Structures are given as structure tokens and as C-alpha cells.
Amino acid sequence: MNNLEKIKAAVKAGETDAMLVTSELNRRYATGFPSSAGVLLVTAEKAWFFTDSRYVEAAEKSIAGAQVGCVDREQTYSKRLNAIIEAENIKTLGFEEESVTFSEHAEWKEKLTAALVPAQKLLTDLRAVKSREDLQGLVNAQRIAEKAFEEILPLISGRITERELAAELVCRILKNGGDDKSFDPIIVSGKNSSMPHGEPSDTPIGPGFLTIDFGAKKDGWCSDTTRTVCVGKPDEEMAKIYQTVLDAQLAGIEAAKAGVKGCDIDAAARSVIEKAGYGKYFGHGFGHGLGLAVHEAPTAAASYDRPLPEGAVISAEPGIYIPGRYGVRIEDVIYLTRDGCENITNLPKTLLIV
After folding, report:
1. What is the 3-state secondary structure (H, E, C) of 100-126?
2. Which of 95, 127, 159 is the last residue before a domain boundary?
3. Is residue 230 in a domain?
4. 38 vs 67, 160, 196, CA distance in Å?
5. Same domain, yes or no, for 161 and 288?
6. Which of 30, 116, 260, 340 gives 20 to 30 Å between its CA and that of 130?
7. What is the mean pLDDT of the segment spanning 119-138?
8. What angle is formed at CA 13 by the lines to CA 12 and CA 14, rounded to 5 degrees?
């Protein structure tokens, strides 16, 4: 069953007559077709995709399972949609309340002849479960990012700045086949490494921990990995902190499987850091969902008390960050199964000293 068929089945089992899909990522999820403009309408049995003249020919060639039509000044999106709403007797129309702006909602409400009903959860829940085919897309992006990372390791020295190293990493992601970076790399060294989402600066790479958080995008799928290396020999406490983060990550991965609550996976990792005396220095969650977006449902965090579904893909990224001194984060990506999880990250995790 492809993603469009999954949406049809969810509409059939849901509380609205149809689903209006307007966000770029959800349109791509449903149809596999990337475009900056378009609207998808899905009922329990049928689907229609409308876009403008820039994309319509490509859409006709690429999209299976949906009728493709073109919009223009005369045949606008609302006119096209209202014709189907009338023909299919659609009374209630689900929409993505988390991505539709206030002004967009006001316009749809004014122009469409069906009642709009918030239905984001329908798509969020579907996207939280990845098929094996989806997983391969994530693996492809991951391998590109890993190759780029391996290629920049020889460049690490005090002769290159954080910003320059980030630029080299992005360049290699593209040269190795990535369509884009999945987010701006986080490359912070020395005292800067205590900031989990610090931005690369014009400061030369300094001694101590160097955190490199990076990802590639390929065919829409995103990767996300963090490795912390040490520039120069670590002292005893630095070695202890790194090992604590690694042990915490391994504990979280060991606890991760379908049916386990996100908060319980987080707790398995967090308890390791707390027992080592660094609990107050781990402020974020163990992991987040990953797919067509670099952050999506579900989540493995203390606040997420729902069981994670089979087929969920989440990051595994505990960290310790001591303000003004340094920080460590180690991040892999895992795929949840009935019996445990599969780690799709190939990079080693022993502390690399450069």
C-alpha cells in the first residue's frame, strides 16, 4: 500500500469526508512529487492533485493514484476544489491546522463550500511509521552524510575556523550526491561546545571537544548525526563525560522498541547521566522523529508518554553540556521494530582524538 492509499484508508476510518493536503512535505509524502505549489484532495476512494503550469506536466508523469489538474487565473484552486466537493458530496474537509496559517484558513473558509475540520493528526500518525522503502531513503541520506564527515576529519586543526569547517562539510554533502543539507551544521569547539545548538563562528577550531552535528537530504529524506571529537588529549573528567554520554546513548538504544513510551526510552538514558552526577547538564530529550523533516513525530522525551509505533525512526542523542567549559553529544538514528531497533548509523563512537 503506497502512502496515498494509506491516506485514503485513514480518511475512510476517520471523521471527515475528505482531507485537504496543502503543506509541501505532506504533499510529497502523499504523492512522492516535489513541488513548491500544489493542493491535494483525498477522499476514501479518490484523490486529485492540482498545481500550476510550472509543475503540471511533471506531475502528470510522476503521480500515480491521483487525477492531476492545472490551475490558472480562471480555474483557481478553490474553484477546482469546489467542483469536486459538489460532485462527491463532501460536507466536511480535514485540513492541516499545524501548517495552515490564519490568513490561509480564513481564505479557505470563505471560498470552499465544505466545512473545515482540524485533522493534522491523520497525516502526523501516518508519517510516524516508516516502511522499509522509506527507511532505505533515510539510509541513502545517512551514507552521504557519513562520507562527507569522514572527508572533513583531516581538515580539523587550529588553522580552520568553525564556519569554514561547516562550509567544507556542506560542500562535501553536495559533492557526494546529497540534494541539500538537511539543516545548517552545528560545529562548535572548545567552550562553544557547551551550547547544544550553537552556531559556527569565525573562531579557529580550539583545543578540547569539537561537536559536529550534521545531516544530508536525498530524495526528500533527511539524515541527522552528531559526533564529538577531541582536539588534543582529553583530561580525566572529559574522558568520563564522553563515556557517560556514550553509555547513556547505548542504554536508550537498548530500551528502544515498538510499544515502549517515548518517556521511558528517555528515562533509560537519562538515568545513566543522573547517576554519574551530570543530570542537570542534560536538558533536551533523548531523541526526535526523523523523515521528510529533520524533526517530526514521534519523540523520545520525558514529556512524551505515548508508545512509539513499529516503524518509527528516531534519533538517539543524549548529551552533557557544562556552560563555559564544554559539551558532548553522540547521535545515531534508529528504526523501531517489535523486538528492538536497528541502528542505521555506521560511524564509530569511540572518542576520536585529532
Report:
1. CCHHHHHHHHHHCCCEEEECHHHHHHH
2. 127
3. yes
4. 13, 43, 36
5. yes
6. 116
7. 97
8. 95
The torsion angle over the Cα atoms of residues 165, 170, 175 and 180, rounded to 10 degrees, is 180
Q: What is the pLDDT of residues 65-81, one digit of tens each?
A: 999 999 999 999 999 99
Q: Tell me which residue of 144, 169, 175, 146 sits closest to 156, measured CA to CA.
A: 169
Is the domain of 96 the same as that of 142? no
Q: How many domains does the chain have?
A: 2
Grid cell listed for 155:
581538515
Asked if the structure places residue 193 within a domain, the reply is yes
Is beta strand 186-189 parallel, antiparallel or unpaired with respect to 180-181?
Answer: unpaired
Q: b or e along 23-61 (b: 16 or more beta carbons within 10 Å of the residue's beta carbon)? A: bbbbbbbbbbbbbeebbbbbbbeebbbbbeeebbeebee
Q: Could you list the residue range(s) of the whole structural domain that residue 58 is in?
A: 3-127
Look-up: residue for cell 569511540?
350
Residue 116 resides in a domain: yes
Question: What is the DSSP track for 274-318?
Answer: HHTT-GGG--S-SEEE-SSSSSEEEEESTT--SBPPTT-EEEE--
Name 42's Cβ contacts closer than 8 Å, sequence gap at least 6: 4, 7, 8, 11, 18, 19, 21, 30, 66
Q: Which of 183, 215, 222, 182 is nearest to 199 (CA)?
A: 183
| Cβ neighbours around 275 below 10 Å, total | 12
**Cα pseudo-dihedral 12, 18, 23, 28, rounded to 10:** 50
74 three-class SS: coil
182 φ, ψ to 5°? -85, -15
In a domain, 353, yes or no: no
Q: Which pLDDT band holds residue 1 (cuts at 50, 70, 90)?
A: confident
Separation CA 166–CA 168 (nearest Å): 5
Predicted confidence band of residue 339 (pLDDT cuts 50, 70, 90): very high
Q: Is the pLDDT of residue 217 over 90?
A: yes
Please state the pTM of the whole predicted model.
Answer: 0.94
Indicate the residue among 85, 111, 127 that finishes a domain: 127
